[in-house]
Design brief:
Elements lengths: L3 E10 L5 E2 L2 E6 L9 E3 L19 E10 L3 E13 L5 H10 L9 E7 L2 E4 L14 E7 L5 E9 L11 E12 L12 E4 L4 E4 L46
Antiparallel strand pairs: 1-2, 1-3, 1-11, 4-5, 5-10, 6-9, 6-11, 7-8, 7-10, 12-13
Bound molecules: calcium ion (2 copies).
One calcium ion binds next to loops.
Length: 250
């Protein structure tokens, strides 16, 4: 009855630039009721799903997982908590890091792509840096109950990486989430990042546009009451003057 699974996946490069994926896996038992039961590689406790080694710079490493849900579901993937380590220090690495300074951020030299049921979620041609796929829920789409669905993650390590990366390691946690297919919620990680379907990477959540508050219409100004025209003062009748004037007016 577990529907969230966390996989602790690690990279490491050996002294001969080979990569390995040691991992510590765990899962979350205490899930909200709106989540759907999800199995990853057939297990509620998928310890040891990923185990990859000999991953050379320039290599493409593909990791497949099988998902299964007991109800039609929308599935999301969250990669989080990326950390890098120096691991084994080789002599050429130590020499190069004398000028570079300590450096082990191999995740910044790794691009990531993702497919589910052979449908592309993150296209490899986009060369999305792995850190840009971290800290948001990546929607994987809807899957049908009681079917085995293949998820394929690819990691591409920069072929131009030099000695500084020898023996270096990076690790991150991954979490799958399944919710009911008719659930319209968009899960958030709390990191402030959300998935951009346009850019195919995690981006800062846009600040919601605040609608201006409604400006009330001015209250109706009553028309002035009809002011009666002043009554017309009749012009005094003028006595017409007639020619010839009466003698008495000359
Ligand atoms: Ca290093
Ligand atoms: Ca190292």
């Amino acid at each position: 009855m577990h529907n969230v699974f966390s996989a602790f996946v690690g990279f490491c490069m050996t002294a001969i630039s080979a990569w390995q994926f040691p991992q510590v896996l765990g899962f979350n038992n205490n899930h909200p009721p709106w989540q759907i039961d999800l199995l990853v590689n057939g297990k509620n406790d998928p310890y040891g799903i990923v185990d990859i080694d000999d991953f050379k710079p320039g290599d493409i490493r593909i990791i497949e997982k099988d998902l299964w849900v007991n109800e039609d579901a929308k599935v999301f993937l969250h990669l989080k908590d990326v950390h890098d380590f120096q691991g084994l220090q080789t002599e050429p690495e130590t020499e190069e890091e004398l000028s570079l300074g300590p450096k082990s951020d191999i995740q910044n030299y790794t691009t990531y792509d993702l497919k589910i049921k052979n449908q592309i979620v993150i296209d490899g041609n986009l060369n999305v840096p792995l850190p840009n796929a971290v800290s948001c829920w990546i929607p994987l789409g809807q899957i049908t109950k009681n079917q085995h669905i293949k998820v394929e993650q690819s990691f591409h390590f920069d072929p131009a990486v030099t000695n500084w990366a020898q023996g270096d390691k990076a690790k991150f946690t991954e979490v799958f989430l399944a919710i009911a297919a008719d659930n319209e919620m968009a899960p958030e990680t709390g990191s402030g990042l959300v998935w951009s379907d346009e850019l195919k990477r995690c981006v800062l959540k846009p600040t919601p546009t605040i609608k201006p508050t409604h400006t009330p219409k001015p209250t109706h100004t009553p028309k002035p009451t009809h002011t009666p025209k002043p009554t017309q003062t009749p012009k005094p009748t003028q006595k017409p003057l007639h020619w010839p004037f009466p003698w008495g007016q000359r």
